[in-house]
Amino acid sequence: MQVLLADEYGFCFGVERAVEMVEEAISEGDTVRALGPLIHNDQEMSRLAAQGVATISQPIQIQRGETAVIRAHGVTPQVETELRAKASKVVDATCPFVTKVQKLASRAAAQNRHVVVVGNPEHPEMIGVFGYAPENAFVVQDAAEVAALPKLKNPLVVSQTTIKLKNFLEVAEAVKGKTDDEVQVVNTICSATRDRQDAARALAGEVDAFYIIGGRHSSNSRKLLAVCQEQCAKSFLIETGDEINAEDLRGAQRVGVTAGASTPNWLIEKIVKQLEEIGSQLSVL
Ligand code: F3S
């Protein structure tokens, strides 16, 4: 059984940068408190916790003398202000691609325009972006939800960084029917997501089973699963190697592997090794 890695997988630029910023703060002796899980990966979070990084859920939990970390998803301007008021230091690890969406929304709101953001309104990234244009923004999940919006004024359409391009384009098209003004469409889907999805799609048609390594709460990992399932019925989202069922691999010649943008390399290597071991055990049976 051959184990094949997709051409692009694992940690994206923003997550790698956030982890590096946290490690730098630890090395400077800071007491580090991340507002919300730094990344959607329990295994990597446990590794950081062992280095003293604790997760808080509210800015009020920060004590004087501590360093607060804004994770890659970003936060609302209000939450950032609260953190700066309480913490001795704030490490802003908001991914620059998310900062771009925040700035676009904020600028459009300042021009008194409407902003349609395509994404999941409950996702922390979307909560943060919405906070930059609370009076002007609408977060919609798909084109069907556009029907319920009021008439839009010079709308700007942007997206959550991790959604599917097709969904974004459909919403952008639907928004045209909601305004007499020109629609500004800025595709803010992060290329890390696209690259990982394209690479997974390219491999999915060539394998008998596909493992997507990523957190169950990770939006981009779940999207990778959906992309793989389109071509490979035996596609599984797993967080650890313990979830691999050897029976699923019986008869498989080629097995694909990819990983979400929050999955550390050490975990990917461990699972690839485990799959190879299962493959050699099955071949001698
Ligand atoms: Fe940033 Fe894209 Fe990663 S938006 S956090 S580089 S998935």
Q: Can you walk through the features of this model?
A:
With 285 residues, this protein is of the alpha/beta class. 41% of the residues lie in helices and 17% in strands. The chain contains ten helices and twelve strands. The protein has helices at residues 13-27, 42-49, 77-86, 96-110, 124-130, 143-146, 165-176, 191-204, 219-229, 265-284; strands at 2-5, 32-35, 54-56, 67-70, 89-92, 115-118, 137-140, 156-159, 184-185, 209-213, 235-238, 254-259. The strands form three sheets. It has a four-stranded parallel sheet with strand order 1-12-10-11, sandwiched between helices. It has a four-stranded parallel sheet with strand order 3-2-4-5, sandwiched between helices. The two termini are 13 Å apart. The structure holds FE3-S4 cluster.
Q: What characteristics describe this protein?
A:
single chain, 285 residues, alpha/beta, four-stranded parallel sheet, 10 helices, 12 strands, 41% helix, binds FE3-S4 cluster
Summary, kept brief:
This protein is α/β, with parallel strands linked by helices and 285 residues long. It is built from 10 helices and 12 strands.
Beta fraction: 15-25%
Tell me the total number of β-strands.
12
Main sheet specs: 4 strands, parallel
The strands making up the biggest β-sheet line up spatially as 1-12-10-11
> Which ions and ligands are bound to the chains?
FE3-S4 cluster
Report the total helices: 10
Distance between the termini: 13 Å
The average pLDDT value, as a whole number, equals 95
Structural class: alpha/beta
Radius of gyration over alpha carbons?
21 Å
**Shape by Cα distribution:** flat
User: Roughly what percent helix?
Assistant: 40-55%
Elements, N to C (H/E) = EHEHEEHEHEHEHEHEHEHEEH
Low-confidence stretches: none
